[in-house]
Amino acid sequence: MKAKLEEIRSASMKAIESVAEAADLEALRIRYLGKKGELTAVLKQMGSLTPEERPAMGQLANEVRARIEGAISEKAALIREAMLEKKLEAEALDVTIPGKKPSLGHKHPMSVVLDEAKDIFIGMGFTIAEGPEVELTEYDFTRLNIPEGHTVRDWQDTFYITEDEKIHLRCQTSPVQVRVMEKTKPPIRIISPGRVYRKDEVDATHSPMFHQIEGLVVDKGVTMGDLKGTLNALVEKLYGAGTKTRFRPHHFPFTEPSCEVDMQCFACGGAGCRVCKGEGWIELLGAGMVHPKVLEGCGIDPEVYSGFAFGIGVERMTMRRFNIPDLRLIYENDVSFLGQF
Ligand code: DAH
Known about the structure:
By secondary structure, the chain is an alpha+beta fold. The chain has 13 helices and nine strands.
């Protein structure tokens, strides 16, 4: 038995010494110290010894067990240390490598133009008003002097929300004029940018949703001259000093007189080219002097006050500004397209 114990001791020491993985070490522990292990098997034979032999053998067996246990725990500590070192090495940071630049986004071309226009108007003393996109028909049509049955209501091809046609998606930003005038006493000087909706098929120049900027000025003695001065200032700031405007007579139910305003073609300077289809002029917006009926309907005395109003299409301005040939490009959110601006 003594020889067997000595053999176990030396064999186990060698085996433990040569192990490098925690799993292999555990296998050795089971092999020697486990319930069915080699040392356990020897201990089970203790009963067959004479009482004289037993104490010395018992002591030796305990010594061997203690040696093996000690060797295993020493080895376990070494393996843990080695693993930690490996892990630290793998996770080492090279702080001298240059950082990765985060890719930053930028303003959408529509926002660029909108923000520029806002800045220009704010510079002229305007404030910004907001109105709902889901609008009462009363505000979008009736109080803008567009009575029931008026062809404009068909022409504008409206997205109605209720069957009684009392609520719809606004087809212009003009109802904000009414909302502002019924709440505010003149002097009034506001612009109101926002989305508008019309049942148009999508193509290179149409979308069922687009953006307008409404403008409204009401005060004593406001004239068409003020309208002209304001719009000239806008075009010169947006498209360069000396850009001219042209006012053509037109009809809008909520202005009298009404006009359409063109600007001199920014591409050819008025000579006629592809951009302006040979005209030399490009249509810019609708405008006019606020109709006395509209003022009166909002509790503003047209004998005392007068005002001008205008409505600009933001998509059109943006396409012109950045030479974008197709309206759909503005909405497709194609980053390789938008990245250019
Ligand atoms: N609301 C008109 C449209 O959508 C544009 C417009 C014309 C607005 C004349 C006005 C205006 O304020 O006075 O076509």
